[in-house]
Amino acid sequence: MENTSALNQPDVVKSQYQSSANLSTRISIHDKYSTNKMGFGNWIFSNYEIRPGASVLELGCGTGSMWVGKDDAVSKCGQLVLSDFSEGMLDTAKEKLAKFVKIEYKVIDIEAIPFEKDSFDVVIANMMLYHVPNLLKGLREVSRVLKDTGVFYCATYGEHGIMEHLSNIFSEYGVEDTTNKNFTLQNGYDSLEKVFRFVKRRDYKDSLAVTSLKDMIDYILSFASMSDLHKIPEQKLEETLRKHMVNGILPIPKEYGMFICRK
After folding, report:
1. Which residue in 74, 177, 83 sits closest to 138, CA to CA?
2. Cα–Cα distance between 117 and 164 in angstroms, integer?
3. pLDDT of 121-131, one tens digit each?
4. Most CB within 10 Å of its CB: which of 39, 108, 152, 163?
5. Among candidate residues 51, 46, 44, 99, the one with its CA nearest the CA of residue 78
6. What is the pLDDT of residues 14-64, one digit of tens each?
7. Element (DSSP H or E) covering residue 216
């Protein structure tokens, strides 16, 4: 239900993510109700190969929550740069990760990464590539700053998860799935193989088992682009969701995973 054309505009993306409030709402529902208790962030980290002394750049780090509790990974890094398009996100990340004095924070646009060629052993871009206006240009920038022996990790969602399911639930109100599909598990390989020699997809098996409809409604309303759902009164949202509960649980499918790429 993300509006593809709107969310591809940098000003709109910056506005949506200028503070961490909406993102925190979306993260919290996964923390509370995911059936896979490993957690998507922990699973992502389990795929990382960070060798001692490695130089690491994360693009679109958001609130930095992925690095909370990852002391061993941080200590391994010879250089760790966390970046985002939003200064508000970086402010939150600095607060969350204040104890790690070695972390550098930078506002960076993936289409113009301000580092020299072959600067990093690892580049990370999770849940953000679908926002990049010129994806090919952004991926070429990643390749440019990545060392020849380096690895690029990028997580994303699939096309048959939460948003598709919610659009089906609320189809009687004319809600359609307009999710930004510029970079998904289904089509991400096609974009990546234009720039990287080796591309591998890995899937994360998970779903939501939601017990609080208020939390689900807060999640829905945290997406500024979901205009169709915003037009539905909250009481109607709750009534419709309640019809799909089974034994006090609202089951919601999820489709997430990542790509691992080498030059």
Report:
1. 83
2. 40
3. 999 999 999 99
4. 152
5. 51
6. 444 444 566 777 888 999 999 999 999 999 999 999 999 999 999 999 999
7. helix 213-221
Q: Is residue 191 part of a domain?
A: yes
Residue 135 lies in a domain: yes
Q: Are 144 and 136 in contact (CB under 8 A)?
A: no
Q: Pull the structure tokens for residue 131.
A: 């926002």
Tell me the backbone φ, ψ of residue 54, rounded to 5 degrees: -65, 145
Q: Average of pLDDT values for 60-89?
A: 95
CA 251 to chain centre: 21
The H or E element that residue 141 is part of is: helix 135-145
pTM: 0.86
Residue 88 to residue 79: CA distance in whole angstroms: 23
| Total number of domains in the chain | 1
For residue 156, what are the β-bridge partners?
257
Q: Which domain holds residue 20?
A: 4-160+179-206+255-262
